[in-house]
Specification:
The protein is an alpha/beta fold. The protein has a single domain (about 5-95), classed as HesB-like domain (Hypothetical Protein Aq_1857, Chain: A, Sandwich). It has helices at about 5-20, 65-70, and strands at about 5, 25-35, 35-45, 55, 60-65, 75-80, 85-90, 95-100, 105. A hairpin with a 6-residue loop joins strand 8 and strand 9 (about 105). The radius of gyration is 14 Å and the shape is globular.
Length: about 110
Amino acid sequence: MAISMTDAAAQHVKAHLQQRGKGLGIRVGIKTTGCSGMSYVLEFVDGANEEDQIFESQGVKIVSDPKSLAYIDGTQMDYVKSGLNEGFEFTNPNTKGECGCGESFTV
């Protein structure tokens, strides 16, 4: 089980952790929402819960709870800039479909 990051995603997270002046890493989870059912949730974390899984990719700690990990195991995070838009993109091998706007997915 693992979640990984591209170099671009890791550099973006590292820069924000440095600006914050503290932090263990980034939490990656899911929530039920949108047309297709699930969407990704990201937040900086200062510590992990006992049941959390912690991965390290490109020098960044990635924290996920077991429930979310069942849906996002094997996912790679990337950080992409395209014109005026920028943000994280996820390559999730578990995804069966996405909504038209790309904001939610189903497994």
